[in-house]
Amino acid sequence: MLATVLLVVLGGIGLVVVRPGPLAGWLGDETAGPATSGQPAEPDPPAVLAGPDPNAPAPAPDGVRAALEPLVRAAALGERVNVSVADVSTGTALYGSGQDTPTVPASVTKLATAVTVLSARGPAYRIPTRAVAGANPGEVVIVAGGDPTLAVDGKGFYPGAARLDNLAAQVRKALGDTAPTTVIVDSSLFSGPVHGPGWDADIPTGGFGAAITALMTDGARRDPEEARKGFDDTHGAAERVPQPDLTAGRQFARLLGLSGDAAVRRGTAPAATAASASAGAPAPGTELGKVESLPMVRLVDIMISDSDNVIAEALARQVALARDKPASFAGGAAATDAVIGELGLPADEISLADGSGLSRTNRISPSLLTDLLTLAGNGNHPELAAIFGGLPVGGWSGTLDDRYRAAATKAGAGVVRAKTGTLTGVNAIAGLVTTADGRLLTFAVLTDRAPAGTLDDTRQALDRITSALASCGCR
Length: 475
Hints:
The protein has helices at residues 22-26, 61-72, 109-121, 164-175, 224-229, 231-234, 244-255, 296-306, 309-322, 329-342, 366-377, 455-471, and strands spanning 81-87, 93-97, 128-133, 139-143, 182-186, 264-266, 287-292, 350-351, 363-364, 416-423, 426-434, 440-447. By secondary structure, the protein is of the alpha+beta class. The strands form three sheets. It has a five-stranded antiparallel β-sheet, sandwiched between helices. It has a five-stranded mixed β-sheet with strand order 6-5-4-3-7, with helices on one face. Strand 1 (81-87) and strand 2 form a beta hairpin. Helix 3 packs antiparallel against helix 8 (296-306) and helix 9 (309-322) packs across helix 10 (329-342). The two termini are 36 Å apart. 53% of the residues are buried.
């Protein structure tokens, strides 16, 4: 959908971004030339969602409080519910209850990861995967850049991803008459543990997480074709391989015509030198080929719309690399804090252990989440607006597809756009809502002590809160 049209609501100014425009440049498109003689010009694509009314009256804090406080006390939300509501255009706080209290955010963490990676890398950045000549003739080193969407061929999980078969073709051409003998996997870009601190014990094997290595294909899925076909039925869960970097190295070796696991080992790429080639083989460190990921704007879109935990961890490491910190769980968390501070937001209201929200030790305040969304939507940082393209829409897409369908919550269908978060006992939602008067608000509702066995009731209680914002003028 993003490749066709992206609606970005930027506060009260109601800016609609469609291709061509800034998004076209981020996606690597060429500027459109004049229409060929005899061919009618292609019409501009329509906006998929209506923009807000810049003259819409703003809700009053007392009105918002009256609408929300009875709903915030719902038993299904548990004993600790922290809420923040603000006006996107002005940044004015409209309601708060525990709004500055750090709370377990679950997958709502991905909003912080999205904003910081877009700020640190920019929407057009692409993650490279390179191949260089090894120290000995016939050795090929695949140098990982941290692209989690890399595919083996055209049957990969992520449409449009960089492909190992294209990289292998470049390598064979660059080697000429030198036959490949060995593939060395250099995944040293990422450091530290491959599983996050605070992850539940079943996450590495439960289908929603994976070992986070700098080289992997298809988000470490064992069978990407089957995972794609069954995505809706499994809610995105899929079996992952235990050593994604070596698995990818073996896939690459087969594409080079090598057989047997013995032809693949871990190592590091030699530094490029001015040394002469040996017997016609490229000199050690010589680049033999390179492929690049989808642009960052697309990776962020996929991460948010699919709540892709593996992409989230890879993007947190891109924030770390952009800020000269170790590409690890700890480095990503430290870099995220740093970028939030650079954006002028209170970094003391966020404490992360990972970039996906799988860790139970993560803490984010609701007010920081609404600050992040306001900053992305008020027009002052257009590069951050890419986070909105992937937000699920109530009653229509993503994790909100089957929500906002009950009579008590139908007012939020089509006008609530939000990221959800769920762990056992933890339920969260943060995003945007357009009021009945056409005013754009941002909200975050986090509860991390929800009663056991009440997931459906808890979600509906959250939806009642956001639907109340959609249905009222609150003045």
